[in-house]
Amino acid sequence: MTQEPTAPPCPTCGYPRPGAECALCENEILPVDGVKSVRPGRRLFLIEFVEGFVSLFQASLLLMTRREFIGKIGLAIAANLALVLVFVLGTGFGFYSLLDSFMPNWGAVSATLAGILALVCVWFLASSLIQAGMTPFLDPIANATERMLAGERMKPVDLGLWRGLMAGLNAAAQILMLQIFVLVPMIVLSWIPVVNLVAIPAAFLVAAYLNAMVWFEIPVLRRGYGMAYRRRIVRRNWGRALGFGVAFNLGILVPFFNVLFLAPATAVAVSLLYFRFDKTPAASHRG
């Protein structure tokens, strides 16, 4: 289990800060492309939600326009494409085999239902598994984003392939179990008339929040913190987290973007948002 550092996090960059002054960011967020930096801290929920929602689109634009990301997204795109295809084909084949055992003479119907169920699983449940496999490939993108925000003082973090993968799988297993226990009943309820008027929006919002919990592992793990800290910091900044999660859910539905750029853009987005999170010691350790 990841042990949390004893030093409190820097209110700006979030890395453990032993002294009053942070040697990595000097308590300053640099402006990006001429846009005035947003200081970390709490704001009105609607403002935080909008910040979180637009972060994914801002991140996509930065990936395509900033020189810091040149040469860093190719491997991440290839890994993202491979993981999504493996998950879709694997779950689709599994559902088809299960349905075909109950309906052996309904091949076309079984295949169609299997495809639909596989896509539903991707939308609601695949995020944690894909993120776990993507963690080592997104480190260079997260490094570039943090240096863009804090300058050359921000040293690159190298988690290593094995550590990043194992930490990602450990956290993914915890959140995946929560997704299954919470979202699967909601998905079942969404097929019931009238009840689905509440169940579908509720499932969408819960999935959005859990997806945020999944992907904010990127900045949290880089700073040496564990799942308990991640739960606290995401809950404390739930407006931005929920806004990001809603944008992520919608991004899954965009063809080509979902299997190519979604994971790299997400790495940039959560890094941007984490700098804006309220990370004061009182907020970070509040239950």
What does this structure look like?
With 287 residues, the chain is mainly alpha-helical. The protein has one domain (45-284). It has helices at residues 45-65, 74-102, 107-124, 126-150, 161-189, 196-215, 217-222, 227-236, 238-252, 257-260, 262-276, 281-284. It is globular, with a radius of gyration of 20 Å. The two termini are 20 Å apart. The model has no long low-confidence stretch (mean pLDDT 80).
SSE topology:
Blueprint: H1 45-65, H2 74-102, H3 107-124, H4 126-150, H5 161-189, H6 196-215, H7 217-222, H8 227-236, H9 238-252, H10 257-260, H11 262-276, H12 281-284
Helix pairs in contact: 1-9, 1-11, 2-3, 2-4, 4-5, 4-11, 5-6, 6-9, 9-11
Taking all Cα atoms into account, the compactness measure Rg is 20 Å
Shape: globular
Give a quick account of the main beta sheet: strands, pairing sense, barrel closure.
none
Oligomeric form of this entry? single chain
N→C terminal distance = 20 Å
Strand content: under 5%
Let me know the average pLDDT.
Answer: 80
Q: What's the number of domains?
A: 1
Structural class: mainly alpha
User: Which residue ranges are poorly predicted, with pLDDT under 50 across at least 5 consecutive positions?
Assistant: none
Strand tally is 0
Instruction: Indicate the percent of residues in helices.
Output: 55-70%
Sum this structure up briefly.
The chain is mostly helical and 287 residues long. Helix content is 68%, strand content 0%.
List key phrases describing it.
single chain; 287 residues; mainly alpha; 12 helices
